[in-house]
Design a protein that fits this description.
The complex is a heterodimer of chains A (441) and B (154). By secondary structure, chain A is an alpha/beta fold. Chain A has 16 helices and 18 strands. Chain A is globular. The N and C termini of chain A lie far apart (47 Å). Chain B has a domain of 103 residues. The radius of gyration of chain B is 15 Å and the shape is globular. The chains are: A alpha/beta (441), B alpha/beta (154). At the A-B interface, helix 4, helix 5, helix 8 and helix 9 of A face helix 1, helix 5 and helix 6 of B.
């Protein structure tokens, strides 16, 4: 979810949580989405316990979601139960879903509350708001391209680092094919800019996410896209292609290939080279007492779309790695604690590939960081939330690095931690598969 | 340029408000706008109107088009089509412009592989065996339970 939408959601969730109508009632979350997960967290932080999660999507019904099993609305809400308060989380379909609730007897403001980042309707107020947004977008576009009409503006509003990595794998091929001479790549975060620079990009510009949203709004409205503004995030909501994700096996990389770049043939990705001899990385290894080639990098904290294993799991993994004579570090930010018994590894994203290449081993939850280090020669284990869904496919089906042709040394596991040793055994087996093969031969 | 576009969007808003009032759209109805002269696509979209109605538990669908043959064909379909509204091409364009400014409603669908702007569905036909049925049901009508053979119901 973009940062631009997080603020309004947080405020609305807090406001709803404080409503008198919720006191003594059981909260039912309507919408088992990534946005709803954020709302659930906000509600819980405000003292509201979510009793059940419902969704109209048949692919989600029966699956685990944030510690609950997703149910059909009718299974929970019929017959009408005054003990329930439904908290509806949605973007544009909020009015549809509210209508559905009203037909079941749940009235807005009494038994049903809506949380939506941007209220959308045909009112004069909404029209004025979006008209202003388009006009501002035009002004920002002119500023970003310095008024040069022959300059193409590439825009990446989504701050995920996996997206920028994937884009950079193909961007130069796209630029050459389109005969683009001059361009600016505008990204919404410094982290994205670091990844772009790691991949040799020199024309990257960091700006705020709001600006990028305004430029896109202008470009779509003015129909400027295709010649001067190109949005580089696939399925940037609400594009009609978003529900094709995962359908018939369509994966993340194919969506970029076909929708963003419109490649009809197979274009080879330009994977950046990594080095195990980068002095800056070797200095960090020396400072932390890590052994090059014999170190496991754990990546438990990176931003991810799905449920992640808890700290106890990582501690068990770290202990098992140490038993095998490996040093272990945690890829963590300045505000995050390393997993107990491991060293904190802090490095700019531009060094991520070299760091993991030097370490030799990597274990992480599926996130953009996994894309960035996927091209290294290190042995990698990537964990996917077994219940994670992404539109029409599972998290694993959609984001599999191996299926995308990116992870030559990656072992991918669908994960559900039951507190036992089985899942840890699988991780260790994935990490040491090369050693096992060597021992056999 | 942008002022002209805003005026078009404003006129599209008027078209939409007129449709809402005439057909009580917010009361469980949906509008499907056929904006392309593409027989194959339009036939597929008409064939799946009932799936859309079932998926949304809708009262029915209003077909909006500027093409006589779509109006005639939709008029013959009785189940679920509440009305057929033939609009001049200009008004269809206004409606698209309004939608391109922002997606003001979930109750309006465009049957097209290229419009509104940034619609790149035309690039997806045939990829991994994607059919027009897939694109209509999943991308245009957003029927989440669509599986390729039919619609899974919750």
């Amino acid at each position: 979810m973009s940062d631009e939408k997080k603020g309004p959601l947080r405020k609305q969730a807090g406001r709803v949580a404080r409503r008198r109508a919720l006191r003594g009632k059981k909260a039912v979350l309507f919408g088992a989405s990534l946005v709803a997960a954020r709302v659930k967290k906000e509600l819980e932080e405000n003292g509201v316990t979510v009793h059940a999660v419902i969704d109209n999507d048949p692919d989600k019904v029966g699956r685990r979601y944030q510690g609950l099993v997703v149910q059909r609305p009718e299974d929970v809400l019929v017959p009408f139960n005054d003990e329930y308060v439904v908290i509806l989380v949605a973007f544009s379909p909020a009015r549809e879903m509210l209508h559905q609730l009203e037909t079941l007897g749940y009235r807005k403001g009494r038994q049903a509350f809506v949380i939506t980042p941007v209220p959308l309707d045909e009112s004069l107020r909404s029209f004025a708001r979006f008209a202003l947004r388009a006009v501002r977008g035009y002004m920002k576009y002119r500023k970003l391209t310095r008024g040069r009409r022959d300059s193409t503006l590439f825009v990446m509003p989504y701050p995920g680092t996996g997206d920028i990595y994937l884009v950079e794998l193909f961007l130069q091929s796209f630029v050459e094919r389109q005969g683009i001479r001059d361009y600016v790549l505008a990204v919404g975060s410094k982290r994205c800019a670091q990844v772009a620079q790691m991949m040799g990009e020199t024309r990257v510009k960091v700006t705020d996410e709001k600006t990028l949203h305004q430029v896109i709004a202008y470009s779509r409205f003015a129909r400027a896209s295709g010649d001067s503004v190109v949005v580089l995030n696939e399925g940037w909501a609400p594009e009609p292609t978003e529900w094709l994700r995962g359908y018939r096996g369509l994966n993340f990389e194919e969506m970029f290939r076909h929708i963003v770049f419109e490649f009809e043939d197979k274009v080879a990705p330009q994977v950046p080279a990594s080095s195990a001899t980068n002095p800056a990385v070797l200095d960090i290894f020396a400072e932390q007492g890590l052994i090059p080639g014999r170190t496991v990098v754990l990546s438990p904290y990176t931003n991810t779309l799905f449920d992640i294993p808890d700290e106890a799991f990582w501690e068990r993994v770290a202990a098992r790695c140490r038993e095998r004579g490996l040093t272990v570090c945690t890829n963590c930010g300045p505000k995050e604690k390393p997993i107990a018994g491991t060293k904190a590894a802090q490095f700019p994203l531009s060094l991520a590939g070299d760091f993991v290449e030097t370490a030799g081993y990597f274990v992480g939850v599926r996130s953009g960081f996994c894309d960035i280090v996927s091209g290294t020669a290190s042995r990698q284990v990537v964990l996917y939330d077994q219940d994670g869904r992404f539109y029409k496919g599972s998290a694993y089906e959609y984001f599999s690095l191996v299926a995308m042709g990116l992870g030559r040394n990656v072992c991918e596991l669908e994960f559900r931690d039951d507190g036992g040793d089985e899942s840890v055994d699988e991780v260790i087996a994935g990490l040491t598969v090369n050693e096992a093969i060597e021992a056999l031969t | 340029m942008i002022v002209r576009r805003l005026i078009a969007a404003w006129r599209g808003r008027a078209v939409w408000i007129r449709l809402c009032k005439r057909y009580d759209i917010d009361n469980g109805a949906y509008v499907v706008a056929f904006v392309e002269d593409d027989h194959a696509l339009n036939e597929v979209a008409l064939a799946h109107v009932e799936d859309l109605i079932a998926d949304r538990r809708a009262r029915g669908v209003i077909v909006v088009t500027d093409q006589a043959w779509v109006a005639e064909r939709a008029g013959r379909e009785t189940d679920g089509i509440l009305a057929v509204e033939v609009l001049p091409e200009r008004e269809i364009e206004f409606l698209i412009s309004f939608y391109e400014l922002y997606q003001f409603t979930p109750r309006l669908f465009f049957v097209s592989l290229t419009r509104p702007s940034e619609n790149r569905l035309s690039k997806m036909v045939g990829v991994r065996g994607l059919t027009l049925d897939d694109l209509v049901c999943l991308s245009m009508y957003r029927i989440r339970g669509w599986s390729g053979e039919g619609v899974a119901r919750v």
